[in-house]
Amino acid sequence: MINKLFLVVSLINLCLFLYGVLITLTNFEENRCHLTFMYEFPNFIRIHFKENDQFPRYNLYAYSEGHLTKKARNMEFSGAPVIFIPGHSGSYKQARSLASVALRKGIDNNWIQHLDYFTVDFNEEYTGVFGGTLEDQTQFLEHCITSVLDLYKHLPNRPKSIVLVGHSMGGKVAQAMLLSPNVSKFVHTIINLATPMDKPVLSLDYYLQSYYDKIENYWSINREFQLEITNTTNTCCKRDNPIDGKVDRKNDDLFVLNDKLLITIGGGSRDIIIHPGLTNSKFSDIHAMATNIPDVWLTTDHLCIVWCLELVLVINRYLYSIIQPSNPKTRYITAQNFIEDKAQRLLKAKHYFKNPMSEIKTGETYLVNVNSDNLGDWVEDSRRVFTVKFKNGLNTTHFQMIRLLDSPHHKYLKVDAINLETDDWIFGCAANEVYATGRFCSQGVSLTKYAKQFPSLRHERTTIQLDLHNLKLRHPEWTHVIIKILPTNEPVKLSVDIHDPDNRKLTISMPKWYSFNEVKLLDDTILGGLLYKIELNGMEETYQSVSLNLDIRSCSSEHYNSVVKVCVPWTKGFDRYHFFTDTKKAPMYIYPPTPKPLRYNTTANPISIELNLDPNCRYRINYQNSISMTMARLVQQYSHWIPAHLVSIILLAFKHQISLTPNAEKFKCGKLHKALLRSTSPFFIIFTSRVFAKFFLWFKELPQPEAYDVPVLLSVMIHGSALALLTLITAGTWAGICFCGNFAHKILFKLISLPIPTISSAVVSGVQKFPITAAALLISIALGSCGGIALICGCLIYFILLAKMYEDYLEEFVFNTAKLIARKLFGKSKKDDKNDKDEKDEIIEQENSDDIKNEPSTSEKSETTVKSDKSPEELAAEKELQKLIDESLEKQSLVDKENEKAMKAQRAEYDSVHDGLSQINFHLPMFFLLLVISGLNFPSTITWAKHYFNYSQTLRPDPSLIPALVMLVCSGIIWQLPTPRNIVGYKPISSLFYILAVICVLYCQESLYRLNFIICTVYMLIAIHQLISPKCKEISQEQDDTSKIDLDKIKNILENSNLE
C-alpha cells in the first residue's frame, strides 16, 4: 500500500514538473524591443590570413554597408576595432545590429570618431553542450585579434587594443583570450551578453567542464574578486552597496588581469536558456540586467539581446565614449584608439550601464545670477505630499523649495520628476538671501549625483530619495532643498512626498510552501504617497516565488504608471523593475536570481521591495505564494538533475531485481515495474546521500559533493518526478517491445539495406543469433566517425534483441499452453506419468522426514520421569528458567514471523516471475542505461553530423568515444552470453549498485558527464560477472539452521545439569 502511495506522490510531482515546463514556455513578458532598421544592404567581407588554413571550419569577416563596402574590400580601416564573437549555434551575422548602428553613428559625426566591427564565423557550432571545439575556437580567435590589428599597421597611430563583444558561449571564448600572454595585452575590455559565466548551463562532457575550470583557475590567481559576499553584505543599502569594479592599483603587479574591464549583461526573465543567475561572475567589474540598464528597461530573450535596439544603442554609446579624442583634421589618415586607463573606462561604464547621474560631481554651484532682473519663480509649499504640473511647459525658471525640519514626519524625501531638461536639478542651500516677495539662495551644492534615472513607458523620469535629517546633520547651515526646473515647451510634472519611512515600511514573511491563499498586505495607500517599502523575510532559495499585485482602489487620472523595484541584498546588478499601468495589470513575480550564501542572515538583510506609486491613485496591496512561478523556477534551475536521479533509480531497481532470488533457487530477475516501487520507497536514497555528504565534508581530501545544502523537499520532488517519468518510460518500452518490434526490424533493414534483400535478411538474422558481430560493427563505427552514432545504433539493436526475446517468450508460452490443452484432451503420456510418480514419491519422503523431526526427543521423555523427584527450590528455579525461555521463544517467534512475512512477499514476487520473462527483466534496465548514456552524448552526434561531416569523417576530440567503446565491448559480451546466467555473486553486485546510486546523487547532478563513468562501470561489472562467475551448486532445500539458536537444546542441557 505504501509503495502505491509513493507512486501516486511521484506522479503528482511529475504533473507539477510538467506544469512548470508549460509555464516556462508560455508565461513570460511580451517582447517590447524595437528592431534595428537597415538603410543600406549589409555586407560581410571575408578577411583571410595564413593561419586560417589551419581552421577550415572558421572565418573572419568585416562588416560594411552600401557604398562603404569598397573601402572594406580594399582592407582600408581606420576606426577603433571591435570583434563580435557568436556563441552556441550563433551566426556571425548576428553582429549586424550592433555594427549597423555604430556605422550610422560614425557617419553622423562625420567620422571624427567611429568603430570598425569585425565578426567571427564559428560555423554555428553547439559549444553550449559540446566542449570539444572550444579550444579550436580559442586558438582561432587569438589569430583573429592579431590579424585585425595588423590591418592598421600602415597607419601612424595604429590601435593598441581591441574590444571583444561576446554573445552566449562566445563570451567565455572572449574571457579565455586573457589566458594567452601574447594576446592578453591587446584586450582591455570585454562585454559579454547572456553568457553563462562561472559554470555551464549543462555540463555534458569533460572538455566543456575542463574549459571552465581552466579559465576559473587562471582568473582566480591573476585577478581580484570584484564583490565578495559576506554574512553582512547588503547591496540594497546605500551605505553597504559596494562600488562596482573598484580600481586598486596597489595589487596590479600581483594580479595582472586587474586592468582588464569585464562587463556582463543578462537578458532577464524572457531568457529561458540562460537564466539570470548564470550571467554574473565574481570577476565582473560591472554586471547589469537589461531590465535595469538606463534607457533600456526591457527584458530580452537569448537571441533578442543582440538585436534589441534599446540595448544596442547603449552599448555603442559606451564604446564611442571610450574612444580617445583625436584631431578632426587627421581623422582619415590615423586610426582610432580606445582609452587605456581602466578607471576612465569603468567610469563611463557606470554612466551608461548603471546610472547616468554618476558622473555629476558634487560641488557648490550658482543657481541664479543675483545681478539679473529675473531670479525665477521661488515657491515654497508647506504640504508634505503635493504635485506640481506644467502641462504646457513654462517660460521662466521654477525653483521648488522644500524646507528642512526636525519633525519625524519630515525625515525622508522622495521626488519624482518627469521631462526635466537639465542634468543638474536638485541642490541643498541656505536660503538666507531676500528678494521682493521672499527668500532665495544664489548658490547651492548639487545633490543630483544621488538621483537616478527611473523606468517609464511614456516619459523620461528621474527620481531621488534623500534622508533630510541626515542632510541637516551634515550641513546644519542648510535650510532648504531646491528643485530647479528650466523653461521648456514640454509638459513637466514634479511630485514630492515627505514622510516618516517607518510609517511606510511593511514586513511580510515568505508563505509556507503549501499555502497559496492571497493575503491582503495593505488595504489602502495614502493619496499622493510616492513610496512604500516592503521587506520580505524567509525567501532564500531560487525556486521560491511570491506574486505581488497592486489593485487600483481609485484614480483621478485615466492613465497611471507605478513601478515596483526588487532588490536582493546578496546580489549585485540584479535589480528588477515591473510596471503597473492602465494597460499592464499582471502581477509581479518576486524571486531571488541566485541562492543565498551559506549562513547568510536573511532576517537581518531581507529582500527589499520598493513601490513607486502614481500620486494620482490609491492602491490595495496583495501578495500570495505563486505555485506557477515556483514550478517554473524549479524547471529552470534544477531540471538538469533529472538524468542523475534517473540513473540512480535504475540502479536501485536493478539491485532489487537481481537480489530477489532466494538461496538455492534458480536465478530469476524480478520485474522492473515492481522493483521501481520496492527499491525507492520512501525515497531513502535522498537521506542516505545526505548522510554520506556530511561524512565526505569532514575529509577535505575527498571530492566535495554537489548541491548538498538544498532543501530535502526539492530533492524529493526531483527524485519523485524522475521515478514517475521512469515508470511511464517502462510502460512505454513494454508497449514498444510488444507492438513495435517489426517496426524496429524495418528500420534496421533500412540502415543496412544492401542490393540483395536476402543478404539484408541474413545480416539481421546474424545480428540476432550472433550479437557480438553487431557490437564489433558498432565499435568500428565509433572509431571511424563518432561514438555517439554508435551508441544510438546500439540502442536500436538492443531494442530489436528485446523484441526477439519477447517473441521467443511468446513462442514458448504458446507451446506450453498447447501442450497443457493436449494433456487435458488426450491424456498424459507415459513419460509424464513417470514424472508425476517421481514427484509423488518425493512428497511422501519429505512428509516422513517431517514426522521424524516432530517426534519428541529422549530428553523430553525423560523430563516427565524425573519431574516429580525435584525439590521445591529446584522447581522454582526451573519455573523461572522456563519463563525466561518462553519469553525468548516468543521474541524469536515474532522475529521469525516478520522474516517469514518478508520471505513470503519476496517468494511471492519470485514465483510471479515467469522463466521466459526473466531474461527481458534483466536486460530492460541495461537498455535504459544505454538510452541515458546515448542521450548524454547526443550533442557529440549532432556536432559531428552538422559541423564535422563536411570537413572530416571523424570527430576529434570526441568525448563520447571512450564511453562508447566501453559500452559496446561490454554489450557484445552481454548480448552474446545467455544472460542472465544462474551463477553466484549477484548479492555483492547489487551492493555495489547501491553505492553507485548514492554517487549519482552526490556527484552527478551538476556534472552530468560523470554519469558516463557510472554507467560504464555498471556495464563492466555485469559483463565481468556474467563472464567469469561460477555456476550455482545444487544444494538441498532443507533450511540451514546453523545460524539460529536452538533454545530447546539449551533447555535440555540445563535440566540435565540440574539432575546431576
From TrEMBL:
<feature type="transmembrane region" description="Helical">
    <location>
        <begin position="922"/>
        <end position="940"/>
    </location>
</feature>
<feature type="region of interest" description="Disordered">
    <location>
        <begin position="830"/>
        <end position="874"/>
    </location>
</feature>
<dbReference type="InterPro" id="IPR056824">
    <property type="entry name" value="PGAP1_TMD"/>
</dbReference>
<dbReference type="Pfam" id="PF07819">
    <property type="entry name" value="PGAP1"/>
</dbReference>
<keyword id="KW-0812">Transmembrane</keyword>
<feature type="transmembrane region" description="Helical">
    <location>
        <begin position="747"/>
        <end position="768"/>
    </location>
</feature>
<dbReference type="Pfam" id="PF24660">
    <property type="entry name" value="PGAP1_3rd"/>
</dbReference>
<feature type="transmembrane region" description="Helical">
    <location>
        <begin position="638"/>
        <end position="654"/>
    </location>
</feature>
<dbReference type="GO" id="GO:0006888">
    <property type="term" value="P:endoplasmic reticulum to Golgi vesicle-mediated transport"/>
</dbReference>
<protein>
    <recommendedName>
        <fullName>GPI inositol-deacylase</fullName>
        <ecNumber>3.1.-.-</ecNumber>
    </recommendedName>
</protein>
<dbReference type="GO" id="GO:0005789">
    <property type="term" value="C:endoplasmic reticulum membrane"/>
</dbReference>
<comment type="function">
    <text>Involved in inositol deacylation of GPI-anchored proteins which plays important roles in the quality control and ER-associated degradation of GPI-anchored proteins.</text>
</comment>
<comment type="similarity">
    <text>Belongs to the GPI inositol-deacylase family.</text>
</comment>
<dbReference type="Pfam" id="PF25140">
    <property type="entry name" value="PGAP1_TMD"/>
</dbReference>
<feature type="domain" description="GPI inositol-deacylase transmembrane">
    <location>
        <begin position="910"/>
        <end position="1023"/>
    </location>
</feature>
<feature type="transmembrane region" description="Helical">
    <location>
        <begin position="774"/>
        <end position="801"/>
    </location>
</feature>
<dbReference type="GO" id="GO:0006505">
    <property type="term" value="P:GPI anchor metabolic process"/>
</dbReference>
<dbReference type="GO" id="GO:0015031">
    <property type="term" value="P:protein transport"/>
</dbReference>
<feature type="transmembrane region" description="Helical">
    <location>
        <begin position="1011"/>
        <end position="1028"/>
    </location>
</feature>
<dbReference type="InterPro" id="IPR029058">
    <property type="entry name" value="AB_hydrolase_fold"/>
</dbReference>
<feature type="transmembrane region" description="Helical">
    <location>
        <begin position="717"/>
        <end position="740"/>
    </location>
</feature>
<keyword id="KW-0256">Endoplasmic reticulum</keyword>
<feature type="domain" description="GPI inositol-deacylase PGAP1-like alpha/beta">
    <location>
        <begin position="77"/>
        <end position="321"/>
    </location>
</feature>
<feature type="transmembrane region" description="Helical">
    <location>
        <begin position="675"/>
        <end position="697"/>
    </location>
</feature>
<keyword id="KW-1133">Transmembrane helix</keyword>
<dbReference type="InterPro" id="IPR012908">
    <property type="entry name" value="PGAP1-ab_dom-like"/>
</dbReference>
<feature type="transmembrane region" description="Helical">
    <location>
        <begin position="5"/>
        <end position="25"/>
    </location>
</feature>
<dbReference type="GO" id="GO:0050185">
    <property type="term" value="F:phosphatidylinositol deacylase activity"/>
</dbReference>
<dbReference type="InterPro" id="IPR039529">
    <property type="entry name" value="PGAP1/BST1"/>
</dbReference>
<feature type="compositionally biased region" description="Basic and acidic residues">
    <location>
        <begin position="830"/>
        <end position="840"/>
    </location>
</feature>
<keyword id="KW-0378">Hydrolase</keyword>
<keyword id="KW-0472">Membrane</keyword>
<keyword id="KW-0813">Transport</keyword>
<feature type="transmembrane region" description="Helical">
    <location>
        <begin position="989"/>
        <end position="1005"/>
    </location>
</feature>
<keyword id="KW-0653">Protein transport</keyword>
<feature type="compositionally biased region" description="Basic and acidic residues">
    <location>
        <begin position="850"/>
        <end position="874"/>
    </location>
</feature>
